[in-house]
Design goal:
The protein has 255 residues and is α/β, with parallel strands linked by helices. The chain is built from 13 helices and eight strands.
Length: 255
């Protein structure tokens, strides 16, 4: 399968966001697995875009990704306002489940990198139970500190030896983007996908917002209510995000 063109890209506060939907994302991942060059996928909710724009090196990493997909209804609504009518949310947990389902037909192998102690193992158990026959080739839970060079070499060898086609990375923004950029092409897997909190949600460690809250753009409120001490700073930036986006929209020119 040839690698499809990247397609339409919108600039959101300097971040290159692919105006895609879930089905297009899965087709692109499939093309990468059979293609000649490894790549990585970043997911971009509003809070991540704020992180990216503050750090020039992180912004470079994200804009060098194979795809940066709209993970958040605020981003979807913004892209539609900019004229990309067919864009849909590419939500980390939904993407992971959809790719796992597709794997039952393709035989793709998965490696789970991230999560708190025990989370990756529980996630592996749950998705293998949900998708009988799914091949989870390995898991690794990194410590809450930078890996030593020796530890990093051992992890790279573990992933390479697993024969994984996809490495799911769940160590939160911006660490997962930096890890993927540093390890793409080194771990042997054609595709690396940073899905952040999907590890916690799909393992059952943390509750997910109801679907109606996700679709109506209120997921942030649910998450703030469940983890106020950890997340209040993140969501306190949303008014600034809205202001910056308004300024960008007012400066748009259509050629």
């Amino acid at each position: 399968m040839s690698v499809p063109p990247r397609g339409d890209i919108a600039l959101v506060l300097g971040v290159m966001v692919d105006t895609m939907n879930l089905a297009e994302t899965i087709r692109t991942v499939e093309a990468w697995i059979t293609g000649p060059r490894p790549s990585y996928v970043c997911l971009a909710p509003a809070h991540a875009i704020m992180d990216y724009r503050r750090d020039p090196e992180l912004l470079r990493i994200v804009n060098a990704s194979g795809m940066t997909t709209p993970d958040g209804m605020a981003i979807v609504w913004l892209l539609r306002l900019m004229g990309y009518r067919k864009v849909e949310r590419v939500y980390g947990p939904d993407l992971m489940l959809a790719v796992c389902e597709r794997s039952l037909r393709t035989g793709w192998k998965h490696f789970l990198y991230g999560g708190a102690p025990g989370v990756a193992q529980e996630l592996s158990r749950r998705i293998e139970q949900r998708f009988p026959g799914l091949a989870v080739a390995g898991t690794y839970t990194p410590p809450f500190r930078p890996l030593t060079p020796e530890e990093d070499r051992a992890v790279i060898e573990q992933i390479r030896a697993s024969g994984a086609d996809i490495v799911w990375v769940g160590i939160s923004t911006p660490k997962q983007e930096r890890w993927m950029a540093d390890h793409v092409g080194r771990v042997g897997a054609p595709v690396l996908i940073g899905v952040g909190a999907a590890f916690d949600f799909l393992s059952g460690r943390k509750p997910q917002a109801p679907r109606w809250m996700q679709r109506s753009g209120l997921e942030w409120l649910f998450r703030l209510a469940t983890e106020p001490r950890r997340l209040w700073r993140r969501y306190a930036e949303y008014p600034l995000f809205a202001l910056l986006v308004a300024v960008q929209l007012l400066g748009l020119r259509r050629d």
